[in-house]
UniProtKB/TrEMBL annotation:
Monomer. Binds 30S ribosomal subunits, but not 50S ribosomal subunits or 70S ribosomes. This is Ribosome-binding factor A. Pfam families: RBFA. Transmembrane segments: none annotated. It is found in: Cytoplasm. It comes from Desulfotomaculum nigrificans (strain DSM 14880 / VKM B-2319 / CO-1-SRB) (Desulfotomaculum carboxydivorans). The lineage of its organism: Bacteria, Bacillati, Bacillota, Clostridia, Eubacteriales. The keyword Flavoprotein does not apply.
Length: 120
């Protein structure tokens, strides 16, 4: 079994993060974190999972800008990591951090209620 998809995914993750930080100057792009990259076994597609801080509208705008810039980023990734065929880039919104934050808020709320009920 080849580890090439995993190695390519890590290289793509590093380069896309750098491109977003340095090259994508669109003001509609909010605070973006690359949470993961999955490359298909045949190396033809790469799903790039991103977490975006902000409102739903800001997230939608950021995702639209990233998807529109996917062709440019694909060519830049190909130039930087020197592969014969660069996978097609698809950006997916990763909401797992939101779920984790919500769970933490709920746990804190439960803890406060328990403290209040034991103090009475």
């Amino acid at each position: 079994m080849s580890h090439r998809p995993e190695r390519l995914a890590e290289a793509i993750k590093k380069e896309i993060a750098d491109l977003i930080r340095t090259e994508i100057k669109d003001p509609r792009v909010g605070f973006v974190t690359i949470t993961g990259v999955e490359v298909t076994r045949d190396l033809s597609y790469a799903k790039i999972f991103v977490s975006v801080m902000g409102s739903d509208d800001q997230r939608k705008e950021t995702m639209a800008v990233l998807q529109k810039a996917a062709g440019y980023m694909r060519s830049e990734v190909g130039r930087r990591i020197k592969v014969r065929h660069v996978p097609e880039l698809m950006f997916k919104l990763d909401t797992s951090l939101d779920h984790g934050t919500r769970i933490m808020e709920l746990l804190q709320e439960v803890n406060k209620r328990e403290e209040n009920s034991t103090n009475e």
